[in-house]
Amino acid sequence: MNAGLIAGVVGVLAVAAATRGHDTWVQTNTNVYRVGDVVHVDLLLGNHGNEHRDFKMAGKPSLADPKATLEVVGPDGKRTDLKAAATDQGLGPKEGFQTARFSPGAAGLYTVVSTSDKVVDYAPKRSVKSAKAFFVASKSLDKVPEGNPGFDKEYGHALELVPLTNPVTPMGPGTKMKVKLLYKGKPMTGAAVSFIPRGVKLAEEFDEKYERKTDVDGVASFEFPDGNYYLVVAHHEDAADKGEKHESTKYSATVCVYVPALCPCCAE
């Protein structure tokens, strides 16, 4: 095989890999804080290998696009924009992640939300992403209240994962989490939802241990076996969603859940 042909084959393979796209996710350094403490909010890009099921960083997300968002929604519904506060934690243009500091001023549940919507530069495809993570601010870490509403709020994302059970309190090994998958506001039936533990490689095709199919109401449930970060992920591609600069649209939705080894609000 001559050098030109080899280069062409490599180029085709690279484009094919790139068109699978990447997912974004947001995470915090833990899931329960004292009111007034510092929360580190990270925005990451990756989850590219093994059909979007590897929970690994691959590249760096950008907040330069006007449609890109990174914000925290408080228990009172107040939104705090973190784009201006975010700093680049990578040396290279495609290395590292974005991070911002936030200090909760009141007790309750907070939601970290990030979105992006753009036509990618490697193919005539539109990429629409949404990401969520949750944490609770408590007046005391010794007595964390269990009731922290607001986790099931819908944000109107094109593809959205909505927790139906609190992803923070109570939370620990053995907790069963339910999520509802919505596409343009309507439940998706028979869609795959992955619950990926950090550091674990899922089986090829469909992993019976870590993946579930949504029911007629768009709901999937999973029992966390141990303490870890878990990335809950869903994807959808709409070939009919075309535009002047794109021939189809790929959607992704993620929820990053921190599962502590010990439930923060459960009795000893």
Can you give a write-up of this model?
The protein is mainly beta and 268 residues long. The chain has a single domain (23-259), classed as Sandwich (Immunoglobulin-like). 7% of the residues lie in helices and 41% in strands. It has helices spanning 3-18, 49-52, and strands spanning 23-28, 32-34, 39-46, 69-73, 79-81, 87-88, 98-102, 108-119, 125-138, 159-163, 176-183, 186-187, 192-197, 211-213, 219-223, 228-238, 248-259. The strands form three sheets. Strands 2, 4, 5, 8, 9, 13, 14, 16 and 17 form a nine-stranded mixed β-sheet that branches. Strand 4 (69-73) and strand 5 form a beta hairpin. The radius of gyration is 19 Å and the shape is globular. 37% of the residues are buried. Residues 1-20 have low confidence and may be disordered.
| Mean of pLDDT | 89
Rg over alpha carbons: 19 Å
CATH class: Mainly Beta
Question: Ranges with pLDDT <50 over ≥5 residues?
Answer: 1-20
Number of domains: 1
- Report how far apart the termini are: 67 Å
Query: Structural class of the secondary structure composition?
Result: mainly beta
CATH architecture designation: Sandwich
- Portion of residues within helices: under 10%
Fraction in beta strands: 35-45%
Task: Say what the CATH topology is.
Answer: Immunoglobulin-like
Shape field: globular
Please outline the major beta sheet: 9 strands, mixed
Number of helices: 2
SSE order, one letter for each helix or strand: HEEEHEEEEEEEEEEEEEE
Number of beta strands: 17
